[in-house]
Amino acid sequence: xxxxxxxxxxxxxxxxxxxxxxxxxxxxxxxxxxxxxxxxxxxxxxxxxxxxxxxxxxxxxxxxxxxxxxxxxxxxxxxxxxxxxxxxxxxxxxxxxxxxxxxxxxxxxxxxxxxxxxxxxxxxxxxxxxxxxxxxxxxxxxxxxxxxxxxxxxxxxxxxxxxxxxxxxxxxxxxxxxxxxxxxxxxxxxxxxxxxxxxxxxxxxxxxxxxxxxxxxxxxxxxxxxxxxxxxxxxxxxxxxxxxxxxxxxxxxxxxxxxxxxxxxxxxxxxxxxxxxxxxxxxxxxxxxxxxxxxxxxxxxxxxxxxxxxxxxxxxxxxxxxxx
Amino acid sequence: xxxxxxxxxxxxxxxxxxxxxxxxxxxxxxxxxxxxxxxxxxxxxxxxxxxxxxxxxxxxxxxxxxxxxxxxxxxxxxxxxxxxxxxxxxxxxxxxxxxxxxxxxxxxxxxxxxxxxxxxxxxxxxxxxxxxxxxxxxxxxxxxxxxxxxxxxxxxxxxxxxxxxxxxxxxxxxxxxxxxxxxxxxxxxxxxxxxxxxxxxxxxxxxxxxxxxxxxxxxxxxxxxxxxxxxxxxxxxxxxxxxxxxxxxxxxxxxxxxxxxxxxxxxxxxxxxxxxxxxxxxxxxxxxxxxxxxxxxxxxxxxxxxxxxxxxxxxxxxxxxxxx
Lengths: 324, 324
Fold this sequence. Notes:
The structure is a homodimer. Chain A is built from 16 helices and 2 strands. In chain A, helix 1 packs across helix 4 and helix 3 packs across helix 8. In chain A, strands 1-2 form a two-stranded antiparallel ribbon. By secondary structure, chain A is mostly helical. In chain A, strand 1 and strand 2 form a beta hairpin. At the A-B interface, helix 4, helix 6 and helix 7 of A face helix 4, helix 6 and helix 7 of B.
């Protein structure tokens, strides 16, 4: 069994090899840039952890796990163009550091690189590996499409929001676990259970992101607190607030959303006060806990030893306690 | 054996099914838009023709062939964003009809759709089919990268240009033929020969495009003659002209390239006169013929009956005679 820190180091070393680099290097440099800036490596970690539930020779799944990380970074690359984001993990986004064309084309090259990595598996798993990856990749696209459409709508419900973040974020975590279990030779009901576990974990993960944007500690979270509020992002917090608010409170929320000229701190403080008053924090806690519990329940039903389960259980707990 | 027209109709009917459509439809509508506007369907035709060299049950390779057409349209979708092209086959490009974000994301969805289609094959061919497709897809990306880099360079040689169009255009035609032959169970040396045949044919195809832009008939070519000249595109014609020109002629070419304010017809006429004088047309004829002959020679060496070869030979000949 490998600890989470050992797995992270193994992933780092594999990524540092930059085996995907080819001529023209200019096409791959933005991919290196994206991958060298750290990130949590959550997805390849989940692939390795799932594989490690059943088998110890994790080097067999490593290249494939790296493929999922590269795929994730490809989606970030294109998403940053679509959102015209300036910064990613504290550094200039690719389309700001280079330009939009570079971000589009190097993103495309990253996607193909991901497909090349994913196929590193035994022949008997290849069709399912590719099938599953196609499904996950398409779901992520669909999630991004809904996300962009929701920006133009004012009536997005909580259910719609959960569906969107499920596709955009949770499915890739789910697929990462399923991929690891599949390649370890786990039976179908087991890798499907891990997919469900990852889906619940992914929802908890994204909802916690929404929560931390409002109630996180700036020194730990690493982003400015209230960034979503300033940008009028329709997060769980905002959608829940609108659901709970009475007419006058809704008007105050609208006032802040529509105001073009405002002091950022003042806006964040005002909206946070409304969240406080409506108890949005407690709703967020409750729904995050619900999904974390779901993932723990699925874990208990897996047909693996208690010792092996403990690692994934710790991982789920650490997600529940994360501050960044 | 199927005639070229029969194959085109079969491809049309398969595309018309729009089997790739899923919710949210907004994500797939731009793909439908791209695919419904016709085009030559050259790539799926080549896949079916190659398959048909060895086998008659072409319905087995149809979905996969459609995948190559969808992949081709995905590259056009993103290329049009990168070139900020306004029109494609006489209609607004996707990023002009919708917007850039739609073109990026629907392009991404098209790429994944292509991967989903490509895997429609027997298990025994799957790994090679995916491997080959990854290689082709990456080569197309590399070709586009070189193309964009060449735009900023003034010293692109003929060899570099041929290498670029080989990657950007010829490799996909080559891969289309190889894919059909692979899935038909052709031996390795045969599908590799068809790959080489397609590479030569693809070069001839692109070089003829360059030629027709200058010397084509506007009513047949369907684009304005001289479009490349107006846009200062570094085509074979322009690169060859610079190679052949003496110092004063180069200066005239530079004059037209650098002139910001010009009458389009006057510029096209002036540059075409230089091409005429330098004999660029004859060089273009010679190199197109060279590559067409290469593809014919490879065809002769294939281990298939004369009757079956005849169809591909006609196809090569029709490429040599094409006016649009």
